[in-house]
Specification:
Layout: E1 3-10, H1 14-25, E2 31-34, E3 50-51, H2 58-72, H3 74-78, E4 89-93, H4 98-110, E5 115-117, H5 123-126, E6 137-141, E7 145-146, H6 149-162, E8 166-168, E9 175-179, E10 182-188, E11 191-200, H7 206-211, E12 220-230, E13 242-244, E14 249-255, E15 258-263, E16 270-271, H8 283-296, E17 304-315, E18 322-324, E19 332-336, H9 342-359, H10 364-367, H11 372-376
Parallel strand pairs: 1-2, 1-11, 2-8, 4-13, 11-19
Antiparallel strand pairs: 3-7, 4-6, 5-6, 9-10, 10-11, 12-15, 12-16, 12-17, 13-14, 14-15, 18-19
This protein binds flavin-adenine dinucleotide.
């Protein structure tokens, strides 16, 4: 092979881009980042990009805590704040979740996350927009918020390139190259490129890429829709992203009176072909989500739909990403399967993945992210289902 890299990364979404950055930061000499489009040309560009810590699995809460910290210090890390707005985050809790939420908030506080229940007596003053009927409890996180997913990803790529990394856009990897039990590189249209390690960060397309080297990667491509609405001025509205499992919806501010609304778990999931799915939204879905929000926030009445779209979740069997090397194959690592919640944690997954691959150091709680957990029957257990892990 004419060209050879220490590491080649396929996919420049948030996971591949931040992995590239941390590899260069770690001092890896020759790193190639490829995308068949450009930076953030896949699902990252359509992410709601809510950055919160409310996770029920301790390792996910730890990573989310690190993610919130990273976003606060992003300018120092990559020279851009990624459009991060530290608005805080509001989690509504259905009555039958309150007991478990108490356990989880205690766990979060133990991890140093700035979160608490807001006493019911403060709701009217603190949340003047809220119809409190049917709300069991409200949790707030003070340091959370949301970011601009494209700005964040582009800044990771820029930082990687500034550090001497090589980024090739409009460069599809057609297959992984494999010799025996080692992945040796990638096949591009211009020929074979060798790599000491290939990192598969191709999002919902990662399964096809893995299959080209006879590697099993159980990923569903599930269609997910969001819509942006313009809300009439001078009405009481939340100033944070809000997760509302009571009506199974979420929202986040977009600035300038605009709000993004999406449907959350539980809901029907539609598996699609990642190379051939409808990227526009469905009218009935958009109206249903909006009407669900109008029940909880009556001031939304009379809002105007600006636009909507569909993108993909790359969903693993337990809704937790696959990260890291796996047994039985050298020169390969998974970095995919974000399952609809890996924008915030993408860069933290990337940082710990790089420690694992370059230094060989991995925390015990991180080891379980390897695809090995499938064969070992050690999938993660979730408390609430779907991407509310
Ligand atoms: C509608 C929606 C809302 C979301 N909201 C949130 C949220 O609020 N908070 C949160 O934390 N997460 C959220 N997520 C999830 C989060 O956005 C994703 O988990 C994350 O962006 C996935 O990033 P990625 O890098 O794995 O994949 P992608 O962004 O899909 O990147 C994969 C890249 O690989 C490239 N590629 C694929 N195949 C090849 C190939 N053969 N050769 C070269 N390049 C290739 C693609 O072009 C693409 O750029 C949401 C997701 C969606 C869809």
């Amino acid at each position: 092979m004419a060209e050879h890299y220490d590491v080649a990364i396929v996919g420049a979404g948030i996971i591949g881009a931040s992995t590239a950055h941390f590899l260069k930061k770690k001092g890896v000499e020759k790193v190639l980042l490829l995308d068949r489009g450009g930076a953030a040309s896949g699902n990252t560009s359509r992410s709601a990009a809510i950055v919160r810590s409310f996770y029920t699995i301790p390792v996910m809460a730890r990573l989310a805590r690190e993610a919130v910290r990273l976003f606060h210090g992003l300018r120092g890390e990559i020279g851009s704040d990624g459009g991060f707005e530290a608005t805080g985050f509001t989690q509504l809790v259905p009555p039958d979740w309150v007991d478990i939420a108490e356990e989880k908030v205690a766990m979060h506080q133990g991890l140093g996350i700035d979160t608490r229940f807001v006493p019911e007596g403060e709701w009217a003053q603190r949340f003047p927009w809220l119809n409190p009927q049917g709300v069991g409890a409200i949790i707030v996180e003070n340091e959370s918020g949301y970011a601009d997913p494209v700005q964040t990803t582009e800044a990771f790529v820029a930082s990687f390139v500034n550090a001497g990394g090589e980024f090739r856009s409009r460069t599809p990897a057609r297959a992984l190259l494999r010799e025996g039990d080692r992945v040796t590189g990638v096949l591009l249209d211009e020929g074979e490129v060798g790599a000491g390690i290939v990192i598969n960060a191709a999002g919902p397309w990662a399964a096809g890429l893995a299959a080209s080297a006879d590697l099993d990667l159980p990923l569903r491509a599930v269609r997910e829709q969001d819509a942006v609405w313009e809300v009439r001025g001078d009405r009481p509205l939340p100033d944070t992203p809000v997760s509302n499992p009571i009506e199974a919806v979420y929202m986040r501010p977009m600035g300038e009176g605009r709000w993004l609304f999406g449907r959350g778990y539980p809901k029907p999931y539609h598996d699609v072909d990642p190379d051939n799915f409808k990227m526009t939204c469905d009218n009935d879905n958009v109206v249903e989500v909006y009407e669900r929000w109008c029940v909880r926030i009556p001031a939304l009445d009379g809002s105007r739909l600006l636009h909507g779209y569909a993108a993909l979740y790359d969903v693993t069997p337990d809704w937790i990403p696959f990260m890291g090397p796996r047994s039985g194959i050298e020169g390969y690592a998974d970095a995919c399967g974000g399952s609809g919640h890996a924008f915030k944690t993408g860069p933290i997954f990337a940082r710990e993945l790089v420690d694992w691959l370059v230094d060989g150091t991995v925390r015990d709680d991180f080891r379980q992210f390897s695809h090995d957990r499938v064969a070992e029957g050690r999938l993660f257990n979730q408390s609430f289902g779907g991407n509310r892990v």
